[in-house]
Every structure is written in structure tokens, then in C-alpha cells.
Amino acid sequence: MGDLGVKAIAEHVLGRASNGHPLETLLISGVNMTDEGLGYITEALKTNNKLRLLEMRKNKLTDEGVVALAKVLKDDNSTLESLYLNANPGLTDISAEVLADAVAARKGKLKVILLDCENISFSARARATARCGKKMRF
């Protein structure tokens, strides 16, 4: 699928949400998505107020894309409750930190983030877990 396919999905999410057909779950795992594709999803989330679960496992995401996503997730208008980012080798301690910040800022609305990625250190995992409890899972 790649980033262009993800762009089409992101545009569809925006269009469907604004036309009275809300999409609550979006599963886009293992589609070779990079930060470019994540950027399209991030833009869609700025105006989408229906999406509850976003799964983006086994892609080619990096900290740069996740930092931008985390900024949007801090917004009180975001309806996202679950975010699955497992098996993205480009994610490091930086992603764990910014996502923990997003969980803390959302005061209970963001219920679970799955972030089992090989390049996140044990110390970053411990800090995020101490801050967010069971909401951050590694």
C-alpha cells in the first residue's frame, strides 16, 4: 500500500467523518508506511472526532512522525482511545517520552498505547510506565 495508499485512507477518514459515516477503527499495519503516511493520518486526526482505535504496527515509522502525532493527541478534541505502534524499529526512547506526555495531557481519554519496539530502552519503558501506568504497554 505505502504512503500513497495511506494518503487515500486519510482523506477517506476525513470525508466519511464529515459525511455522517464515522469510522471508529483504522487498522493499517504492515503496509510499509513511513512518516510521510503518518503525516497524512496526523492531519486527518486534527479534524476527525470519531476515530477511537488506530493500529499502525509493523511499518517504517520513526520518532519524527510520532512527535508530530503526539502533539495532535494532546488536543482535548481528539477522540482516540487506543494506539498500537508495536514493531516499528525506527521508534526509540523519544517516541516513548512524547507519547507518555500525550497520555498525561489527555487525563484518561487515551486509554492504551502499545509500543513494543526493539529500540526503546528499558529505562525509557520504566519511566513511561511509572508515569502512565498500564496505559503504556511495551
Protein architecture, described:
It holds the Pfam family LRR_6. GO terms for molecular function: GTPase activator activity; small GTPase binding. This protein has 138 residues and is of the alpha/beta class. The protein has a single domain, classed as Ribonuclease Inhibitor (Leucine-rich repeat, LRR (right-handed beta-alpha superhelix), Alpha-Beta Horseshoe). It has helices spanning 2-18, 35-47, 63-73, 93-106, 122-132, and strands spanning 25-27, 53-55, 82-84, 112-114, 136-137. A five-stranded parallel sheet has the order 1-2-3-4-5. Strand 1, helix 2 and strand 2 (53-55) form a beta-alpha-beta unit. Helix 3 (63-73) packs parallel to helix 4 (93-106) and helix 4 (93-106) runs parallel beside helix 5. The model has no long low-confidence stretch (mean pLDDT 91).
